[in-house]
Amino acid sequence: MNTIHIDTAVLQCSYEELSATDKQLVDEAKLQVKKAYAPYSGFHVGAAIRLKNGLIVTGSNQENAAYPSGLCAERTTMFYANAQYPETPLTAIAIAAFSNGDFTEEPVSPCGACRQALLEPEIRFQTDIKVILYGKNNCYILPNIKSLLPFCFGKENLEANK
Ligand code: THU
User: Fold this and answer.
1) Which end of the chain is more exposed for a tag (fewer CB within 10 A), N or C?
2) What confidence score (pLDDT) does residue 98 get?
3) Domain boundaries in the chain?
């Protein structure tokens, strides 16, 4: 029997310590919370995705009276990016959340469904998507989506027994 240890290097820093490019992406994500449609949860999430061609695509969570029909900011933004630029790899995503009149003190991390959805373009384009999570007290930076989703299910699993 073996124990497998899964190591994830998460960089913790303040907003001020972010690089200029990461700050720019976080700033775009922070702007997006104003456009969220979140009347049911009151939890406004903004996301900004940097594409390999240099463009930044932004989005926010979009809720629905039939609760499960709504969509998180990360998937709204990622699907829009892939729909508009189907051949362009994604290189980074920044996420910020606003509730009860302020940005969250601690970073908000993508939900399980968003992690799975974001893994698809990372594998498809064979390009790491850096993850920058904003909180007033802390920011976290992860090197890629895979590090948020160990033991992930991807297209290799579908192809394994062919
Ligand atoms: N939400 C996001 O948009 N992204 C996250 O990372 C976490 C949750 C949204 C979904 C829902 O509209 C609201 O926040 C409360 O869960």
Assistant:
1) N
2) 98
3) 11-150
Task: Choose among 135, 99, 129: nearest CA to 114.
Answer: 129
Question: Could you read off the pLDDT of 75-93 as tens digits, one per residue?
Answer: 999 999 999 999 999 999 9
Say if pTM beats, i.e. exceeds, 0.85: yes
CA dist 134 and 156 (Å) reads 32
Bridge partners (DSSP) listed for residue 13: 139
* Catalytic-residue membership of 74: yes
Whole-angstrom distance, CA of residue 123 vs CA of residue 127 = 7
**Spelled out in words, what is the top-level CATH class assigned to the domain 11-150?**
alpha beta
Our mutation pick for probing the ligand 1 site, out of 106, 111, 115, 131, counting the most ligand atoms within 8 A of Cβ, is 111
**Six-digit token string for 45:** 């999430």
